[in-house]
Amino acid sequence: MMKKMSISTSKTSLVLFLCQIISALDVPLDLSQPPTITQQSPKDYIVDPRENIVIQCEAKGKPPPSFSWTRNGTHFDIDKDAQVTMKPNSGTLVINIMNGGKAEAYEGVYQCTARNERGAAISNNIVVRPSRSPLWTKEKLEPNHVREGDSLVLHCRPPVGLPPPIIFWMDNAFQRLPQSERVSQGLNGDLYFSNVQPEDTREDYICYARFNHTQTIQQKQPISVKVFSTKPVTERQPVLLTPTGSTSTKVELRGNVLLLECIAAGLPTPVIRWIKEGGELPANRTFFENFKKTLKIIDVSEADSGNYKCIARNALGSVHHVISVTVKAAPYWITAPRNLVLSPGEDGTLICRANGNPKPSISWLANGVPIAIAPEDPSRKVDGDTIIFSHVQERSSAVYQCNASNEYGYLLANAFVNVLAEPPRILTPANKLYQVIADSPALLDCAYFGSPKPEIEWFKGVKGSILRGNEYVFHDNGTLEIPVAQKNNAGTYTCVARNKLGKIQNEVQLEIKDPTMIIKQPEYKVIQRYGQVSFECIIKHDSTLLPTVTWLKDNDELPDDERFLVGKDNLTIMNVTDKDDGTYTCIVNTTLDSVSASAVLTVVARPNPPFDLELTGQLERSIDLSWLPGDENNSPITSFVIEFEDALHEPGVWRYQTEVPGSQTTAQLKLSPYVNYSFRVIAVNRIGRSQPSEPSEQYLTKSASPDENPANVQGIGSEPDNLVITWEPLKGFQSNGPGLQYKVSWRQKDVDDEWTSVIVANVSKYIVSGTPTFVPYEVKVQALNDLGYAPEPSEVIGHSGEDLPMVAPGNVQVHVINSTLAKVHWDPVPLKSVRGHLQGYKVYYWKVQSLSRRSRRHVEKKILTFRGNKTFGMLPGLEPYSSYKLNVRVVNGKGEGPASPDKVFKTPEGVPSSPSFLKITNPTLDSLTLEWGSPTHPNGVLTSYTLKFQPINNTHELGPLVEIRIPANESSLILKNLNYSTRYKFYFNAQTSVGSGSQITEEAVTIMDEVQPLYPRIRNVTTAAAETYANISWEYEGPDHANFYVEYGVAGSKEDWKKEIVNGSRSFFVLKGLTPGTAYKVRVGAEGLSGFRSSEDVFETGPAMASRQVDIATQGWFIGLMCAVALLILILLIVCFIRRNKGGKYPVKEKEDAHADPEIQPMKEDDGTFGEYRDRAGAATSQITEDTLSSSLQPSITAVTQFPVCLPHMMRCFFEEKGYRVSLGKKCNF
Hints:
Strand content: over 45%
Distance between the termini: 92 Å
Number of helices: 6
Largest sheet: 6 strands, mixed
Structural class: mainly beta
Number of strands: 93
C-alpha cells in the first residue's frame, strides 16, 4: 500500500506568470502616472483600545502623490489634532492612544485620498472600532437539583464583546470539562446534558469567555449541579433542546462557513444524523463536529441553499428538525476595472462587472468625485458598467473608481487612464538565465512597456528566424511559453519589442535540467510495537542541482523525538509506538522542482484484553460465557483462549479450559462437579496473546462421585524386597466432591492369588513390603470420595525391587585390528543371574605400558558402555606399540555385577609423530648445521630419519629435491658444498618399520660473499581470463618478503583503479566478480616501494553463457571424470618439463605451493593402511648422478635465477663417508 504524489515548482511558476498575464502593464516609475493605492487597512478595522491606532494608506504615482483623509464623510484636518500624525512620504495615520488619547474618541468611518497632477485614487471606507471586553454582570446562581436521567442546560450568557468572545467550560483546577455524546457545548456557549448521571454532581461548572484582541479572559460564577437518584431510572425518547420547534431558518453569506446545530435530550443518549432534503451533502466541504451535533459546510455558495434535516434517535424513538438555509452574497467581482495606458489618439474601455444576491448596483467616480458632477471629458462616455474612451489626449489622464454595492456590502476598485507617448522599453534584465526541468513548461519573460503598446516577437538564437507554431504559446504580457521543454530547447532566445516610436531587443538564456526522481520509494510497512522500521528514499537528480530531502508524518513535520533518525537516503524509527502509525512522506526539493513519495506505517501489537464477561445458561455440567473483544491493534484477532480458576481447590491458579475462533464471542463450557469456577478470556492475534480479561463472577457446581481414576500408575521396587506403587493424584477439580481417597490393589502375576487392597488418603504412593526379588505384579488404583467410587480402573504390570547381578561375563576375547583399534567379544550372562532389568555391559580398559619406552605411568581406566544385550564392541583411540588390559561387567537398574578376569592385549607399531624440533644454525658460504629432537611419540622402534631439501630462488621457483637417509641414533648434521647466498627448504621426518611419520619443515639461507644491492622489478604480467574472473601472474626480482597488490579497472574508463591485496608473497592472484564480455586493464605493484609497479596489461572477459535447464558441467560424474583427466595431464606435463629443463622453472601452480609439502611433487609413491605410511624408492625420485654433478660445474648464466642440477662429487663423497646413502638421478661426468 503506497501513496505517491509529485509537486513541481515549474507549475507554480506557470501560475505566477499567468497571474502577470491577466494584469495590466505596469507603468515604469520614471514615467508620469496617476496614483495607485498599494496598501490600506481592512474595511472593518477593530483595534486594541490600549495601543496606538494605525490606519494604513500607501500609494505610488509620478509625481509622488499627496494624501488627505475624510472622517465620517467630512474632511479630517490632522493638523488640528495633536494626537494624530501622518507618516512621512505616506498616507498612513498614527493616532497616539498610549499618551493620553482615548480610542473611543476616534471611532468612525475613514477614507484616504491619494492625489497628483494626473488624478486621484481613494481607499475603501475603513470603519474603525475599538475592541470591547466587558465584565460579566453579577447574578445569583441557584444550585441545580436534577433527577438522574433528566436533561439539563447550563447557560453561559457571556457579555457582548467586540469581537464576540470564545467560550469554554472548565473547573476550579482550570481543567477543561470532559465532553461526549451525552455532554457537550453548544454554538451559543451553553453546556447541554442529554441526560444527567450521578457522576455529573459537582459545584464548579465555570464558563470562561476569552477576548482575543485584548488578550483577556472573563469568568462566570461557578454553577452547582446535584444529581439525585430514583429507582428505576426511566428511559425517555429524544427531545430537541436546540433548536426548538420543528422548523427554523438560517441565512449565510457566500464564501462563509455554514454551521447548523441540533442537540437532543433522551435516555439512552440520542444519536444525531444529518441529511439534505432533495439532495446530497456537498462532498469534500462537509464536516461533522461536536459528536455529529454540528454540521459544518465550508465555502458555501448559492447551490448550498435548501432544507437540512437533523434526526435524533435512540431505542425508544426519534425526533427531527428542518432548517431552511438561504445563501445570500455580498458583491463579488466578475470583471474588475484594469489600468489603461493609451497613446494620444487611441481608444479604450474600462469595464466594471460584479455579481451578488441581491444584484449589486454599479456607480462610477472620477478622481474620487461622482462622475455625474466631475469635470467633463469629451473623449469619455459612460454606458452602465462600462466607460468608453475615444481619441484620448494627454488631458484625459485620470483615476476612475467603480463601486458595486448591495445590502450585504460593497466593492470599490481604482483604475487609471494614463495617456503617454513612449517608445518600447524591455524591463526584463539582459541575459537573464532561466532554468527549467525537462518535460515541464518553460516561461521566458519579456516584460515591456511602450505607448502605443508594442508588438512582441521572439527569435531562437541571435540570428534565428521568428518563432511560430503550436510548439510555442505567446502571451499578451510578452512571455514566451514552451509547454513541454526538451533538451533541444536550451539556448539563447531574443525578444524584440516595437511600436511606431521605436524598436528594442533583449536576449535571455534557457537551460534544461534533468528531473529529480525517487528511484527507490518508501514501501508499506507493518511493524510490531517497540520494533524498528526503516523507509528508503533513494533519489536521482541533475548533477548541477542540490537536492534537500525532507520527511513528513501525516503531511506535518516529524515529531521532535530522538527515536526518529534521518539518514542520507532513509528514515529509521527506533522503538516504534502506536502513535507512530501513519503516512510518511519523503519530499525532495531542488531550486527547480520537487517530488515526493509516501508510504503507510501500520503499527501492530497484541490485542487489548476482552472485557464485560457474562455467565448465562447455568447447568450442572455446562455454562455459557460471553464477552466483548478489546482493540485488535491493527492485527485481526485469530482466537480466544478461555481459562478457569478453581477457588475451592487451587485459588490463584489459572488452567486452560478451551479455545474458540476469533470471530466468536460466546462459548459453551463443560464443567466438573464440586468446583468453584471463575473464567477469564485471552485474545490472540498474529503478534501474540493479550493480557487476561478481568475474571467473571464465580459459579459453584454440585458434588458427585469421581469420573476418572489416577493416571500414570506404576509399580517399581526401590529395594530387593519391596514394591513401590505410585500414581498421579487427581486435581482438586477432578475429585468431584469432598473426602477424596484411593483404593490401591496388587497381586503377583502368573500366580493364582487374590487381590490385596488397601484404602489410603489423598497421597501419591504406597509401598508393599516383603516381596520376592524382581518378580512381576499386577497393580491398579481406584479413586473414591464421600459420594462413591470412580469406574473400575485398568491394570498395569510392575516389578518388585532389583538386586546386583551375580555373574560376570565369560569367554572375553580381544581382536586387535590395527595400532589404534581393537574389538572385544564376550558371552552373555544368564538372565536369571541379572536379578533386574538388563541395561547393558561395561568394558573397562587401561594402558599398562608403552613397549618402546618400558616406563610405567599412572593408570587411567577408560569405560565404554554398550546398551542392551550386546556381546561385542570396538575400542577406539588406542596408542600404538602399547600393552593394555580390560575386563567386562553386566549392568542392571541396581548397579554393576562382578568383573570378568583381566584380559591382556598389545597394539602393533605405528608411524611416529614428527620430530620434536628442527633447528638450522651456523650458516656459512657453503654449509648449514641441522639439529633435531626425537619424536614425542615414536609409536614403535625408530629405524632412521629422512631429510629432503631443495633450493628456492627469488621468484619462489623450486630447484631439484635431494633426499638423505640418517641413522636413528643421530641428532645433528652439517650440510656442506651448498651454493652461497641461496635459500633452501628442508623437510624432515622419522621412520619406524611401519612407515614414515609426519614431517617438520624449515628454511635457511647460506650467506653471501659480498653484499650486492638487489633492484626490485616486476615483469612478465600475464592474464588468463574466464567469464567472471581472471588469473593474474607475474615474475618478481628483488628483496624477499615483498607484499604485492593488484590494481585493475575497466579499460578506457576514467574511474579510479580498484586495489586487491595479495595474501603473502605469492606471485599470482585471482580477480573475481568481473563483468562478462568487458575489457579490463591490470597492473601489479609492491607495498612500501614508492612508484614500484609493473606496466599495464589489458585483457577481456569471456561472454556470458546462457544457462540450460540441465547443465552437464554440474553433474558429479562429469566433474570427477574431468578432474581425473586434468590430474593425469598435469602429471605428464610435469614429468616432461622436468626432463627437458633439468630442474628449471615450474608452472604457476607450483609457485603457489613453493613452501608446501614436497610429497605433492612426483618424488615418491604412497601406500598405507588406516592412515599409516611406508616409504619406497620411486622412479620419479631425482637421482644425484655424475652427469648432473658435471652440469653443475658449468658457468651459470644468471646466478640469481639458475640452479645447479646435481651436487659436486666432493659433496657426494662427504655424505658416503659419513654412512649416508645418497640417491641421484644420473651419474655425474667430470
